[in-house]
Design goal:
This protein has helices at 2-18, 22-27, 152-176, 184-208, 216-235, and strands at residues 33-38, 41-42, 47-50, 56-64, 70-81, 84-97, 101-109, 120-129, 135-145, 253-264, 268-279. It is an alpha+beta fold and 280 residues long. The protein folds into three domains: 30-145, Sandwich (Immunoglobulin-like), CATH 2.60.40.10; 152-235; 253-279, no CATH class. The protein is elongated. Keywords: Membrane, Signal, Transmembrane, Transmembrane helix.
Length: 280
């Protein structure tokens, strides 16, 4: 009887989960296909120059290929690097994209304050956000921000450079003064932060110099590669002079000296030196 009830409950639960309802109807609402143009050219797969001194006009076309009307609440224009957002603009633009239709809107952004937020190449995106603040469509691009080197992004790079120099100076000074740990792994960890800082500085520098944007497929190999190289360098540093060697690194011979004494009432105490060699 108990097994029959359990089977009935399991079947009922599976039917409830499989039954179409509001969630199933919402699943029919496919993401919008979004196209954004600046100066008549699509921003997808190309670099868009952004001048803080002049407004940025975005022509956004949203195509709804689903069976449900989609409500757009706002448009978000943001730029990120190293998993950090360095600028973001949210523009209220409430409109409806009917099912199997397309809607085009033109938004003009005042990006004057971008001069103090970013500089150089930055990955960016234009996203459509609904009333639930969920992204329902968007397009990715790369922006060439003509901002100041003293912007937030530039200051981040300068700060990373200063900390990296301090980390390298500290590690190399400890190496020169023979004050590193006798443990190889601890010596490696002493150099690790300097390597990671070097990778961060390299990523930001390449971005500010407009060589390559800090995309994830660029920044991760550079930062991790520099960090691993520094760890290897620290691991291979010479053993500090005058410090006891690690037990695992010792392969020499061990010589033990013993002094024995014999007490003779007639002649007095005598001493003999015995040396015994023990192979390590």
């Amino acid at each position: 009887m108990g097994r029959s009830i359990g089977a009935v409950v399991a079947i009922a639960a599976s039917l409830l989960l499989a039954a179409p309802g509001p969630a199933g109807a919402a699943g029919a609402a496919d993401p919008l296909s979004v196209t954004v143009t600046v100066d008549g050219q699509s921003i997808a797969d190309r670099t868009v120059a952004v001048e803080p001194s002049r407004p940025l006009a975005l022509v956004i076309t949203a195509v709804n290929g689903g069976d449900v009307d989609r409500q757009v609440r706002s448009v978000r224009f943001s730029g990120t690097a190293l998993a950090l957002t360095f600028f973001a603009y949210d523009i209220t633009a409430q409109y409806t994209v009917p099912a199997h239709s397309s809607v085009t809107r033109t938004l003009v952004l005042d990006v004057a304050d971008l001069d103090g937020q970013a500089v150089g190449l930055l990955p960016a995106s234009v996203q459509l956000v609904d009333r639930d603040r969920e992204v329902i469509g968007g397009v990715a691009t790369v922006t060439d921000v003509r901002g100041s080197v003293w912007s937030v992004y530039g200051a981040f790079g300068i700060g990373a450079l200063v900390l990296t120099v301090v980390a390298w100076a500290s590690a190399l000074l400890a190496l020169a003064r023979q004050r590193l740990s006798v443990n190889r792994w601890r010596r490696a960890l002493r150099f690790g932060p300097a390597g990671i800082g070097t990778g961060l500085v390299a990523v930001v520098s390449l971005s500010v110099l407009r060589v390559v944007a800090p995309e994830p497929f660029v920044e991760l190999p550079v930062v991790l590669g520099a960090g691993l190289a520094a760890l290897l360098l620290g691991y291979l540093t010479p053993h500090p002079a005058g410090a006891p060697a690690d037990d695992a690194d010792y392969h020499g011979d061990l010589t033990v000296g013993l002094t024995t004494g014999v007490l003779d009432p007639a002649t007095g105490p005598t001493e003999a030196m015995t040396t015994r060699r023990m192979d390590g």
